[in-house]
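agent> Task received from the user: take the single chain below, predict its 3D structure, and emit structure tokens. No templates, no multimer pairing.
agent> Plan: (1) validate residues, (2) run structure prediction, (3) serialize to tokens, (4) report one or two observations.
agent> Step 1 OK, no nonstandard residues flagged.
tool_call: predict_structure(input=
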Amino acid sequence: MAELGVSLTAQEIVKHLPISGQVGRWGDEIFFETGILASDFNSTLQVNVGDVAYWPEGKCICVFFGKTPASQAEKPVPASPVVVIGRTMASVDELRSIQAGQNIRVAAVPVKPAAPVTAAPATSDRKLSQSEIDALVQKLLAERADKEKKKAQGAA
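)
tool_result: status=success, residues=156
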């Protein structure tokens, strides 16, 4: 199971679900070809254990759970830039048990509606992704421009 973010690349992958493929292994990374052409915006070589990423070069989904052949230390390093689209909830042991050649199927799981909030929300240590920050900035700029436009119309 994995939780995907809200980036354009993640949304493009979700639009094509369910998808199936044959697993490949590259050290402690599993990947499978999707045939999906998605954005490489925000691509990076910086990934962490548990990251789910889209590899534009191979049109693959990758799951990192340890050292790869490109690693200099314990941290995974992709073969070339990837777009991090989410995080897996699977344990390292579960991922390590997946063998090359196995078939894999990725499908959307319905999300239960959140319970109504009756108390003050708990604080979270979750950090926003760059795409989430970009979306918030765009929203705030649009709201500000709208307010200024209304203010200018009211003065005229």
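agent> Step 4: summary for the user.
Helices lie at 8-15, 92-96, 130-155.
agent> Done.
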